[in-house]
Amino acid sequence: MPSAAEAAAHARKFVREVLAADDQPLGAECVDAVLLIASELVTNAFRYGSEPGDSLLVVVLTTADRVRVEVHDPVRRRPAFREEAGTRVRGRGLHIVDTLATRWDVDDRPLGKAVWAEVAR
């Protein structure tokens, strides 16, 4: 998908469609967690991992015990936690991902990175 301000909304729609088509339906809380994680990862990729004209790749993998969301972008710079501040509106994305995900990490790619997170079913 194009790296643009509306990318997070497009990603949520895509992820929701993939999860709805899965053979093993997820509970509402799990769906909500996966959608929020996808939104945060795509937002970070748009803001910090891409330039105008770049594309992002969103991958959703499901197994019997987990759902994995990957967001690929063309910048090798790894995401970093920002110090929490009550006055700042931005900078909480990775804290949200860290709280909701069973585990998450970053994989380097030849032309960028993939940030992924897994949620237990």
Automatic annotation (TrEMBL):
Signal peptide boundaries: none
Domain Histidine kinase/HSP90-like ATPase positions: 2-117
Record-annotated membrane-spanning stretches: none
Coiled coil: none
Keywords: ATP-binding, Kinase, Nucleotide-binding, Serine/threonine-protein kinase, Transferase
InterPro entries per the UniProt record, alphabetical: Anti-sigma-factor_SerPK, HATPase_C_sf, HATPase_dom
Domain of life of the organism encoding this protein: Bacteria
GO MF annotations in UniProt: ATP binding
Record PANTHER family: ANTI-SIGMA-F FACTOR RSBW (PTHR35526:SF3), ANTI-SIGMA-F FACTOR RSBW-RELATED (PTHR35526)
Protein name from the UniProt record: ATP-binding protein
Source organism of this protein record: Streptomyces similanensis
